[in-house]
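User: Can you help me understand a structure? I only have the sequence.
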Amino acid sequence: MNENNITRHYECVNAFMKVFGGILMSILADGLKKCRKNINKTQREVSNELGISEISYQNYELGRREPKVETLNKLADYFDVSLDFLTGRSDNPKRQ
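Assistant: Let's start by predicting it. Here is the structure, written out as tokens:
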């Protein structure tokens, strides 16, 4: 592969990840908001109970920031849902 092909390949992968990553973030953001509202909690309450900053949690719900795997697990545990439900892979919130 020459340098031009590598650059084009990188640009294509980067563009794909922006679109695909944005879709995934939107699904996660919607799932978090839905779970939080189902238990009648504020963003502040959830963030305090999980030990994360309120602004971080807000950014997760807005799809502006992606939580680390450890935080994703904490969120799923807190809301008592599966990671598949939280990330849109399943409509069933029950853990299996």
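Now, to help you interpret it: The mean pLDDT is 82. The CA atoms of residues 1 and 7 lie 10 Å apart. Let me know which part you'd like to focus on.
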